[in-house]
Specification:
The protein is mainly beta. It has 2 helices and 10 strands; from the N terminus they run E-E-E-H-E-E-E-E-E-E-E-H.
């Protein structure tokens, strides 16, 4: 059985805070799509039950594009996307590894994700 970690994280200004639970070692997806490549987002995909928004629901603003499935959620004050509902896992969350506090001692595995060829890359993930 793998070890489980719990971490908190949030946006830059602190208005949005959340807690997430994940197995170790976590597998992070390094996506090359137009959005992720420009922001350096490293995806920690978690089930809905492994994510709790602690505060800031009213401070989030949403952006959707392309299929409209992904719900990109940004702090309306500082503009940081610390988590969102991804198209690849609409029943879960993608948490920005870089938005988590106190995970410096956790060594993740990083897997390339070809978001520029999204359909083929998603099929390769299986049920995640």
């Amino acid at each position: 059985m793998s070890e489980t970690h719990t971490a908190e994280g949030g946006c830059h200004c602190g208005a949005v805070r959340f807690r997430v639970r994940f197995a170790a070692p976590p597998v992070l997806l390094d996506c090359n799509c137009s959005m992720c490549a420009k922001t350096g987002y490293l995806h920690l995909i978690v089930a809905r039950d492994d994510f709790v928004l602690l505060r800031g629901a009213e401070d989030l603003t949403e952006y959707r594009f392309n299929s409209g499935t992904a719900r990109h959620l940004f702090c309306r004050h500082c503009g940081i996307k610390s988590f969102y509902v991804p198209r690849s896992h609409p029943d879960g969350y993608s948490v920005s590894w870089r938005a988590l506090d106190g995970v410096e001692s956790v060594v993740p595995e990083i897997a390339a994700y070809d978001g520029r060829n999204w359909e083929a890359a998603r099929a390769a993930l299986g049920d995640g």
